[in-house]
Amino acid sequence: MPVQHDIAAETELWDTFAASAFKEDAEPGFCWTQYAGHGPGPELLGDPRSVLEIGCGTGRALAHLAEQGIAARGVDLSSVMVKKTTTKWAGTGAEFVCSEVLEYLSEHEEEYDAVYSIFGAAWFTDPGRLFPLVRRRLRPGGVFVFSQPPAIPGAYGPQGMYKGGFAGKAMFTYRYSYRPAVWERLLTRAGFATAEARVLDAPHPGHIGTLLVRAVAP
């Protein structure tokens, strides 16, 4: 059964997250994994002229792409984060929009060469609703790439996730976790021509790896 998200409550959560995650001295940078300098880079996007990042957070990845001359737009639920990123990365040409991702993808008709998510909206949005909308926003042959932590064995589907610790105000969201083969099936069912999901090992044995998923539109 689909999970009913409380968008107002999740907005408050991500506004709070923005206050701690955004760093004024940050530089543009692109990394799919949680380990700096580890794993592939933006080459997974191909050679796009335009990109959309869903759940763009601190904006570092989007700013990096914009500096390469790519038309780069990001969508984030937090108005606090969007205000910070718009100011911080104004000189790069990156554009930041405050919106709930499903609403944005449903209501706007722009198409992109690539849509991506780095520990962002693809982790926190029902793939049954998200993937068909992403597919519609891609040009023919466009790519959808996302990364997030891999599923804990035996713990699949939507799961509640507290943010900010386990004391104080209860702020939570839902994340979506599946085995790689299931991610591939969800994407092809949503209309993608091909899909490949894999877990990239961490740079240190025994540490948490990174789920990397790449799908191509027909």
UniProtKB/TrEMBL annotation:
<protein>
    <recommendedName>
        <fullName>Methyltransferase domain-containing protein</fullName>
    </recommendedName>
</protein>
<dbReference type="GO" id="GO:0017000">
    <property type="term" value="P:antibiotic biosynthetic process"/>
</dbReference>
<dbReference type="GO" id="GO:0008168">
    <property type="term" value="F:methyltransferase activity"/>
</dbReference>
<keyword id="KW-0808">Transferase</keyword>
<dbReference type="InterPro" id="IPR041698">
    <property type="entry name" value="Methyltransf_25"/>
</dbReference>
<dbReference type="Pfam" id="PF13649">
    <property type="entry name" value="Methyltransf_25"/>
</dbReference>
<dbReference type="InterPro" id="IPR029063">
    <property type="entry name" value="SAM-dependent_MTases_sf"/>
</dbReference>
<feature type="domain" description="Methyltransferase">
    <location>
        <begin position="51"/>
        <end position="142"/>
    </location>
</feature>
